Amino acid sequence: MFERLDYLREKANKLPMCPGVYQMKDKSGKIIYIGKAKLLKNRVTSYFHSVEAHNAKTYKLVSQIYDLDFIVTDTELDALVLEASLIKLHSPKYNILLKDDKGFSYFRVTGGDFPRIRHSFRNDDPASTYIGPYMSAFTVKQTVEECSKIFMLPTCNKEFPRDFGKDRPCLNYHIKRCMGLCRGKITKEEYAGIIAEAVDFIKNGSKESIERLTAEMNEAAEALEFEKAAKLRDRIAAIERASRVQSIRPDRDITCDVFAMSHNTGLTALAVVKYRGGQLIDKENYFIGDEFEAAYMRDEFLRRYYENGREIPKLILLDSDTEDNALLEEYLRGMCGHKVEITVPKRGENLVLTTLAKSNADEYLALRVGRTSREITALQDLQKLLGLQKIPELIESYDISNMGEQTRVAGMITYKNGRPYKAGYRRFNIKDVVGVDDYACMQEVLRRRFTHFLEGDEGFSDRPDLILLDGGKGHVAAVREVFEQMGIDVPLFGLVKDDKHRTRAIASDGGEIQVYSNKSLFKMLTEIQDEVHRYSINYQRKKHKMTQYELDLTKVKGIGEKKALALLKEYKTKQGLKAATVEELMASAKINRETAEELHVFLQEAF
After folding, report:
1. Rounded mean pLDDT, 432-441
2. With 501 labelled, which of 95, 324, 343, 441 sits at a CA distance of 20 to 30 A?
3. Is the CB of residue 327 less than 8 Å from the CB of residue 77?
């Protein structure tokens, strides 16, 4: 690994200070990454300096680079265009590949006497009829739901006519969301007519369906079939409700694409929400996988997304900036022939749209990585609030617990990707501090923890992304001294409690940062502070009991502190000690039979 690092650094330092495209190649000569640069030398040399500081994906990329090549261009825009064409030609594995959550979508009308209308990604059932294909799974799913509501179609898992009359109708029937096919009172012919109307609605839209149903309603009324006319009237009203424009605001007719990104556990997902004429018409989710820098990923994703002939609207909303919004606007304008505005909303209705897209990205990533969206959001908010360079995937928290000078301990807990990671929990006995001094105790614990880390101790080999101390800025300042002495560079903050013993704020060297207003972050920090307190105080209580047992044992003639401690280590509990034989006590404490017999009697009587 990194066998050619010196060669690559030397070659990169010889690159010109001008726009261009660079190509990274592996040992076989295959192109594994293509990028563009405003200044080739500056961009390419950044890969080969401070390699250990790169994120996981960049680190892995650099480890596989054997050689590099470059092409000089006249302008940065030319480099952007050339990069796009080369990526399309070579499909390098380390460039972003757009992996969405869908293929083509179909409406599926199942076979049998009582068919159902479903959404499907496949069209391989010969017994079913398919309508499609459609690009948008969102639109197909939404239309199926609307059909079910408008035509009161059953959405349960029952099979008909097999399940006619077997159970009472469900809640959907009673709230007029289902026709109650399960009662067995609707004929096959009547049901087929309703399904035909639903299919017509799918194929021809609401306008033609309303016109046809209105004509049928009038005919039924003229024929004095008032019950049938009433059903048709209700169906027309349902179609009209469903076909009303879903506006962001009644007075706003907006057309735009909204992009938002979510990060967690070194992975990235991106949501695209499309509005046309004020109506939300589609939502797409993409899983990017290993993450690069966020600005770079947005930049490359947008270019790749629109290269496939998708409609480019005049307005594109982002949750955060790309590497160069203005350059990307110029690039997209060249593709579509009209002005394109890329903006990051800070307030108002457009901010609401990016927030909605961000929620979609969070939820999609949460499903992929097995985390809740609350956990993902909390970690992202914590990164922003504390100004961290990356999302804190690994958080360590410390608390000191003491009961006088005899029983002083510390607990260290670890949170991994927003959840407790029990394999990372550690306990410390305070050894060097004289008297009750929380600051000195915290210094001792963190010094010992990172001494283990620097010595390569496997039990302390993980480097945390963030350390949270149970305490205020005094604790932070005390531990900061230790870090400066040891050359440790890990973000360090304190957790401050209010008079009701609840997490109130995050403490730093310069003061306090309030967290009450952010519910998900407040909840996570409270959980961390409560958990480290629980862990440390439980150990302190256990330690205190052991100390008390130890003092009790020294009442026996011939049993000193060392022998009492050896017994407690061997038998752990009072019950274990009480069950030990005289011979076992002799061997464990290395005592003679007379002392062992006296100890055995003491244990039976006192314990």
Report:
1. 83
2. 441
3. yes
Q: How far apart are the first and last CA of the chain?
A: 61
| Integer Cα distance of 286 and 305 in angstroms | 10
Q: What is the SS3 assignment for 475-505? A: HHHHHHHHHHHHCCCCCEEEEEECCCCCEEE
Whole-Å CA distances, 562 to 478, 550, 554, 565: 34, 9, 9, 5
Burial class (CB in 10 A: 0-12, 13-18, 19+), 278: middle
CA-wise closest residue to 537 among 422, 410, 381: 410
* Residues 26 and 138 both lie in one domain: no
Q: Please tell me the predicted confidence (pLDDT) of residue 250.
A: 33
- The candidate with the shortest Cα–Cα distance to 217, out of 240, 241, 187, 237, is 237
Whether a cis peptide bond, with omega within 30° of 0, leads into 154 is no
Q: Is 29 helix (H, G, I), strand (E, B) or coil?
A: coil
Cα gap 348→210, rounded to integer Å: 37
Instruction: Say if residue 245's pLDDT is above 70.
Output: no
Note whether 210 and 236 are same-domain residues.
yes
Q: Could you give the 3-state DSSP secondary structure of residue 33?
A: strand
Same domain, 433 and 491: yes
DSSP string, 164-187: TTSS---HHHHTTSS--GGGS-S-
User: What does pTM read for this prediction?
Assistant: 0.53
Q: What residue numbers bound the domain in which 300 lies?
A: 256-370
Number of compact structural domains in the chain: 5
Residues near 37 by beta carbon (within 8 Å), at least 6 away in sequence: 19, 20, 21, 22, 43, 44, 79
**Whole-angstrom Cα distance, residue 568 to residue 316?**
69
